Amino acid sequence: MALNPVLGKLVSKRVVLASASPRRQEILTNVGLRFEVVPSWFKETLEKSSFAAPYEYAVETAKQKALEVANRMHVKHLRTPDIVIGADTIVSVDEQILEKPVDKQDAYRMLSRLSGKEHSVFTGVAIIHCSSKGNQLETEITDFYEETKVKFSDLSEELLWEYIHSGEPMDKAGGYGIQALGGMLVEYVHGDFLNVVGFPLNHFCKKLAELYYPPPKHTVQHIKHDSIPSVDTFENLSDGESESSNFTEHKGAKKLNSSSMCPSRPVYNCENSSSVRTDSMVPLGNQNGASESAAKLPSKIVDLMDGFKASKALFVASKLKVFDYLKTKGPLKAVDVANEVGTSVCGTERLLDACVALGLLEKTSQGYSNTDSANTYLTSDGEYSLHGYIIHSNDHLWPLFTNLESAVREGSRQNHRAFGRKAEDLFKDYYHSQEVKQRFMAAMHSIAHLTARDVATAFDLSQFKSTCDLGGCTGALAHELIQIYPNMKVTVFDLPEVIANISYFQPSEQCAAPVTFLSGDFFKDNLPEADLYILSRILHDWPDERIHVLLSKISAVCKPGCGILLAEMVLDDEKKSRSTALLQSLNMLVQTEGKERSGSEYRGLLEQHGFANVKIKLTGNLLDVVLCIKT
Ligand SMILES: Cc1cn([C@H]2C[C@H](O)[C@@H](COP(=O)(O)OP(=O)(O)OP(=O)(O)O)O2)c(=O)[nH]c1=O
């Protein structure tokens, strides 16, 4: 089994791990899988006696965890993932299933049952492939389980309690963690160690190999020593799946004349356009007749090299309002789209075809039409439209990013290079013209609206009677808060230039209570009184010195028990993951003096101003949430 190509199949897919288990996240991150974490809300309460065997319980629970996340993302966030992975680990001893202990006594009961005996650890795994057909979620479920046998030594009462008091047992099946202190209790392990820790990686990769590389009809033995599989297009060389391909599809190998063979490079067969890609599971012969694996273009790197072209194709199609025309008039032929938007037919056809390949449009004999997600996110007037942000990305961020090299060399923003004027103040830059201001507000509104529900529900905020969203712009989050907490008094405080332009963005249906909009500068003016101050995507705009000014102002008006809620992309402490957030930090470099920060960095800033009990919630959506309370 070749691991990289198997995991590489997932590179181009939106993969979601439906688990809060840090161990599962680590196991999958360690092998380079890129995924979002959306913990499942499925309660592990299936009736155990209704399952003939313990592993059936684990598999069913894993499946339900994953299905809950797939459904929630589809319905609530309108974001259908490609793959959702769920897992459930249980310990089975004397026909009994042990899950996580509910308290120390429960941990004691579990560990004393395991003492001196062999038990089984089962992890059930569900891999759910999702697609959305006309707003319906369609799923294809693959599941499996893995068993590992573990034997404990005889545990003395003293050792047992010492272990329980360490706190380690509480979030682990059977009440122990083999990877840490619990390892000292173990006499032997038969089977996959990682399965005990929560995820049977080896079996998972084999399952993916089965799914993505089912045994080819014409297998390796049909290939002669002097033959190599041929490839056709650049695209087919990547080991990532194309959007439209089915996950069970297997592309067979074809023969190519040995004279065109070059073992160290991918081989193109220009004559045969119907030939297919090399597959690393098919051995290649080299000139000496020895077997050698094919050199392949690394799909991840190819995707990155192409990323800017894909972004620009999306930006241009959005700018030309292609998605708006197709929503109202589609399906349309390229010539009709070109006539509508006033562009060349040949250029338009290529743009539309690229959008089809990128999964934004569909193409049939009738012509081009929008996909569901283009209708939802890419038309300019939809409730969840990202059009504003896309235009902002094209007109503002693109020129800034073309100066990324200078930004990295100089360590500072590049507004002067991109726009020929010296940046005075971030927001003065945005608000110097009505057009730029409205574009920026539309961009901020679209992100705030799409993340508002997750931000507003990350913590129970019912204890706060009044809230002030500092820099709350169009009030997208404020309106969501009132939906969820109808008795909450919500104020948005933002610059006068912003408040003067909010009317376009107000919801047509009135909320239970209206949002109050107040104009002012939170660095200069008095802050309105509130129990909770919200700073959503504000701190990332500023360097630490300015943040201290703002936090000390808030701290001065905040009574004990009142709080601050931050909504930001929170980086992990090692700053290794979430490319969206780390790229956003480059985005802050090219245009501000701010940056994205880690949970510890936010905690450190807040604690210096008398805020404690700092809790961080990773929402799985674009913005994470930090809540803290004034002591
Ligand atoms: C036996 C054993 C379990 N565990 C962990 C793995 C799992 O995280 C946990 C079993 O609980 P699970 O319910 O499988 O998983 P979870 O609650 O941690 O996360 P989620 O339900 O969101 O997926 O026990 C260890 O870390 N080490 C061990 O030695």
From TrEMBL:
Q: What sequence ranges are listed for the domain O-methyltransferase C-terminal? A: 401-611
State the protein's name: Acetylserotonin O-methyltransferase like
Q: Name one GO molecular function term.
A: nucleoside triphosphate diphosphatase activity
Q: Which PROSITE patterns match?
A: SAM_OMT_II (PS51683)
Residue ranges of the O-methyltransferase dimerisation domain?
303-380
On assembly, the entry states: Homodimer.
Look up the domain of life of the source. Answer: Eukaryota
Organism name = Anas platyrhynchos platyrhynchos
Q: What keywords sit in the KW lines?
A: Hydrolase, Methyltransferase, S-adenosyl-L-methionine, Transferase
Family annotation (CDD domains)? AdoMet_MTases, Maf
Q: What are the names of the required cofactors?
A: a divalent metal cation
Query: Quick one: a GO biological-process term for this protein?
Result: methylation
